[in-house]
């Protein structure tokens, strides 16, 4: 089953085509790695999937309701300087379905506490976001998507500037969300993380997309540079239009 499909998608930025003839299905309950060199078009594709960028041609078919779609940008892109506690942030996860003005019920608060316990941040509930470490902040942000009951989750380098223990916790939570049927797409640059976490790979290169498996990608990388720790090093040639 796939609730997110790309059909001959063409995307442009500033009048310049960035990606074209992009096809494929993201499987429900699977975690897909989105990889590619800087400027390959990863953020552009994410913007299109989130409905923030209209395609030049083709389409994104997404059956996940808007209130169940969540997008977690790179931490650096987030302004977390405004006064808000960890608990308050997590509770905002109810906004897309419940509205921002209705206030929260006892059930919401109970779920919020369960989520913080699961993420190991209960003792930080009343801490301001600006006073958190990178790992603590990322746990809180993932907590918000759990509160939202996100069924489509896009994450841009979620493990950057995050401690090893937090990486383990977050990977476990993401795997659980996928097991519950969520479609998860994660921009990654780290091969080890990719092989631990993901089921599928969508590689962007040369304006095209190519689907692969983590195993095939790792085999290819091992042949190119033994013990290569980081992506991107070299990618298999992306097929040209019509040959995919
Ligand atoms: N608003 C914009 N106007 C014009 N060009 C843009 C705009 N945003 C991005 N681009 C260009 O589109 C191309 C794809 O950018 P995109 O941010 O999607 O790549 P990326 O794969 O996410 O890169 P990175 O790994 O560096 O985040 C780049 O050449 C970039 O310079």
UniProtKB/TrEMBL annotation:
The ABC transporter domain, residue ranges: 4-231
Alphabetized SUPFAM superfamilies for the sequence: P-loop containing nucleoside triphosphate hydrolases
Record's protein name: Zinc/manganese transport system ATP-binding protein
One function term, GO molecular function aspect: ATP hydrolysis activity
Family recorded in the similarity comment: Belongs to the ABC transporter superfamily.
Taxonomic superkingdom: Bacteria
Taxon lineage: Bacteria, Pseudomonadati, Pseudomonadota, Gammaproteobacteria, Oceanospirillales
InterPro entries from the UniProt entry: AAA+_ATPase, ABC_transporter-like_ATP-bd, ABC_transporter-like_CS, Metal_Ion_Import_ABC, P-loop_NTPase
Keywords, in A-Z order: ATP-binding, Nucleotide-binding, Transport
Listed Pfam families: ABC_tran
